[in-house]
Amino acid sequence: MRLPNRAAVSRREYLNAAVAVGGMTGLSACVAELDGDDRDPIPTGGESLPDRQHAWNETLSVDDDGNHVPPKHHVLRYVNLAEGVEPADAREPFAAALSSLSEAIAWGPDGLLATVGYSPAYFGRFEESLDESVDLPDPAPLTDLESDVALDAVDLLIHLASDRPDILLAAEEGLFGDRAELNGVEIPDLSELFAFPEYDRRTGFVGAGLPADNQDTRGISGEPVPEEAPFFMGFRSGFAESQPSEERVTISEGPFAGGTTQHVEKLDIQLNAWFNQENHHQRVAKMFSPHHAREELVEGVGENLGSATGIVPETMDALIAAAREDGVVGHAQKVAAAREDGQPIILRRDFNTTDDKQAGLHFVSLQEELTDFEKTRNAMTGREIAGGSGISSRVNNGILQYVFVRRRGNFLIPPRELQSMPTPAGTAE
Ligand code: HEM
């Protein structure tokens, strides 16, 4: 990926492109762009960080409706231990690098938020098995519609997020680039410890204006994505009422208590068909529910919805009966059926992407057990609904006609004290 001609694009598009390009090139472009406006200094860290790596919410701002506002820019770094390097060799230097990072940059969207996760392949390096209190299967296809899905088998996944692209790139360079110093703090060199697999860096963004600015991707004609949309498909998402608490997705028992599990599903989105073959009424029916479409409950990108879709979880029989009657079933309508005790069981931290010049979504999901993701994903697949109501496995089945799963990966995000090369027994030694 190359930086676009500065004069030909908006600032937002240019900064997103800089994040996608990454490395010193992306960082220099970002810094040069923002310096023109007296770039704010990087806020320094050093404060004590929450025990849960995934405890991001208390640092996030909330919008007028009380919904958490996710950080705007994201990078996923997939990393392997270099050949011959054992977890025990990497433990201390990696812990030192993470601690330097948190000393250099304040924790929060104005600075940096991060999680470090470990895959089943990483735990497979040890002789003993992963503590049985943790539900972390190998990644596998989860639906019949994804025969060519790639399964991530790398050791680690580091999710970095910030509202500031310059900070995100500086942090990444500090960890993996040639920078020995970050915001006045020395960062240990990790270059001997890690190896980078193919497709090791994935990037993206979320927030009103960003998808519209970055819609010039493969196969898109015109500029269909509305300016106000925080997500490519043109609707707000992540309402307070349809997100569980961080507590709900936290592992409650065993040596990894305080951690969580992470699933990352990469989806390509066929935006052209979504916007050009469907009108607002049809899009609302497929994204939310036919009832939402009939009653005109969703204005524009859903700015009138406040903090809830208003969807009430239905039983399978009721969903099938409704789908038979309506000839279509909504995405949110289906997945809400996976709620337990009134709360969804996965915490969505997804973001848009134009990786590979293709509009898509990195669906980052946190849950106490991987099974919670599978249950919710099965609800989205809606196989029983399709079988019982005569609608197709893709067409009129929520948004499935427009999204294509490309990759999946499973990770354990340990509590912070175990964030550097944990053993399967949940010790750091
Ligand atoms: C391009 C892909 C996707 C888009 C554009 C999308 C969009 C949306 C929207 C607009 C909502 C309603 C607003 C809200 O409740 O926050 C929603 C709800 C939801 N989606 Fe998705 N989604 C996508 C993929 C997925 C995937 C892969 C899953 C995984 C199972 C998922 C799980 C959920 C859940 C759990 C809810 C909340 C349901 C509830 O209220 O209980 N979504 N999504």
Uncertain stretches: none
Main sheet specs: 6 strands, mixed
- State the order of secondary-structure elements, H for helix, E for strand: HHEHEHEEHEEEEHEHHHHHEEEHHE
Radius of gyration: 21 Å
Q: Give the amount of beta strand, in percent.
A: 15-25%
Shape verdict: globular
Instruction: Give the end-to-end Cα distance, rounded to a whole number of Å.
Output: 40 Å
Class based on secondary structure composition and strand pairing: alpha+beta
Bound heterogens, unique? protoporphyrin IX containing FE
Kindly report the average pLDDT value.
95
Count all strands and give the number: 13
Helix content: 25-40%
Q: Please work out how many helical segments DSSP would assign.
A: 13
What descriptive keywords fit this protein?
429 residues, alpha+beta, five-stranded antiparallel sheet, 16% strand, binds protoporphyrin IX containing FE
Task: Tell me about this structure.
- This protein has 429 residues and is of the alpha+beta class.
- Helix content is 27%, strand content 16%.
- It is built from 13 helices and 13 strands.
- The protein has helices at residues 11-21, 23-35, 87-104, 120-123, 165-176, 210-213, 271-276, 280-287, 290-294, 316-326, 331-335, 370-381, 383-389; strands at residues 73-81, 113-118, 150-151, 156-162, 181-182, 185-186, 194-195, 201-205, 260-269, 347-348, 351-353, 360-367, 403-413.
- The strands form three sheets. Strands 3, 9, 10, 11, 12 and 13 form a six-stranded mixed β-sheet that branches. Strands 1, 2, 4, 7 and 8 form a five-stranded antiparallel β-sheet that branches. Strands 5-6 form a two-stranded antiparallel ribbon.
- Helix 1 (11-21) packs parallel to helix 5 and helix 10 (316-326) packs across helix 13 (383-389).
- It is globular, with a radius of gyration of 21 Å.
- The two termini are 40 Å apart.
- Residues 231, 233, 235, 237-239, 242, 265, 267, 269, 287, 309, 311, 331-332, 335-336, 339, 344, 346, 361, 363, 376-377, 380, 403 line the site of protoporphyrin IX containing FE.
